Amino acid sequence: SGATAAKVYLCNGFVPCDDKDKSCDLVAGGSNGVVYLFRKAVCTAFAQVLRGKVTCLEVATGSNFADCKVVCGGVGGVLKVLDGRTLAVLQSHSLLDSAAVPKSMARPGSAARPRSASSGRTGSVGRPPLAAPKQLLQGAGRPNAAGPAGDLITGGYEPVVEEPSDESSGSRCITGLALPIHSSRQPQLQQPMQSAANLYVVVALSTGRTVRVDIGTAVAAAAATPRSARGTSDSSPASYVGKDLFYFHCGPLYGLSADSTAARRLCATVGDDKKLMLWDIEDCELLAKTALKNPSRCCHVDKSNSFVAVGCSSGSLTLFHLSDVLQPHSNLFKVLEVAYRKDAKADTTDVKFSPSNDMIALGSHDDNIYLYSCSFELTSSGSGRGATETASCVLRAMHKLRGHSATICNIDWSADSQLLQSTCNAYELLCWDVSTGKINPTVNPADVRWKTRHCKLGFNVMGIWPAYSTGSEVNALDVSVEKGLVVTGNDSGGLIRLFNYPCVVKDAPHRLCPGHSAHVVNVRFFAGGDHLASVGGRDASLQIWSCT
Predict the structure, then answer these.
(1) What are the residues whose beta carbons fall under 8 Å from the beta carbon of 195, sequence distance 6 or more?
(2) Residue 161 — φ and ψ, nearest 5°?
(3) How many whole angstroms separate alpha carbon 254 and alpha carbon 433?
(4) pLDDT tens column, 43-61
(5) How confident is the model over 91-104, as pLDDT tens digits?
(6) N or C: which end of the chain has fewer CB within 10 A?
(7) What's the confidence (pLDDT) of residue 65?
């Protein structure tokens, strides 16, 4: 039968023909799940390898031109290895089924839905009808969240750490492949394959995992089999073979919190991919991660680097404890959810622990600020991987701060935890008395020693705004008093702007720092001001900058 042309060809590669004319065949993956092989503009072979899109494809060349392999992946998380001449399926791996999920991430008592591969269809026809700075690689049960403000909420358990629950094949797929040595897209780096048993592929999954899959042993076995005996039928995906290399965010990033202790190493990020990730910026590696119930917009790490507050798009506040105990079968530390509460009626915008570490302020799109008291308790026993640690938190509503006429933008605590300042989309800057929950009109914000300075309005930062500003150009701001610097994240060109502090003159001189490929939605200084972190929204990247 003849091949049906794809509506869109999503990926391609070149397969060397022979050493005499130095010509190449073109192999392409289509949106219909078919891989096509073209020679001199004529389709010479095709294979139906997936039920959905073929999103990525690479070609591995061997010691001779007859040993070329095509590695492709796409919707459903299925990875397939094809013969470079006939497109016959040599291997099939399902990377998103239960075998692909590490034990520390699998839901007890259940397994992810297996993803079987489509039956292979191959054939030969004549003419068809025609992705500056250091850049990081990027619960099941919960306490009762219902009840009026003031209800006591406690928790001290370990939730199941799992991937986002979206099981649709359209959003769970292989997004990238890399053959580190033998890639046809880098002919100047090609080397003869020393042994087919050494072949491996690095696979990026849409769930935020990067996996190394060793496919060499099976390739060598297939190469030893006569082509006439291989057949054209596609077997079901093989068991998961390989190991997780690292994890990354797979959606827009918004929330960012930088270490305020002398260690200056910890950084927390959240975003639309429903993940909380904690990073060690000195070693550029992930320390811990956990799944969230909803997309998140803000997070903050307490002064002990032990607890993280996360504000979600549902209006909820969740507290997590970063344990010193490693997860089973993993080098990541456990993250324990210790408290949950939902009082806001709209998305959250900012969350902050008080300097005294016994209160939390949460800003929301419903124009209100929610003030909570919190107390923590930690118990631990044992050592090494056999150690256990239990954390609990008592979270109680204190005040609902009403007074803003638009969405809350930023919140700052005073150094003595007695005052709050906040800004909103109506360009209001208000000061609050924490003990009463009322506006304090007698306080001049410029005279107060603030623990953080994230509010975009105020006398000391009025020079950050460009001429003819509409008030929406600056997405985030932070101040390092020690270094005398102000940093802003802006909409235009993925730029970070660095000013002197105080910044009070019109059109203040500044330095432009390019690096992101999307709007910079958040920036934070680490303690001391020697380094700062930024997140780029839709580019889903966390970047660490050195301030010299």
Answers:
(1) 216, 220
(2) -95, 115
(3) 28
(4) 999 999 998 899 999 998 7
(5) 888 887 433 333 33
(6) C
(7) 62
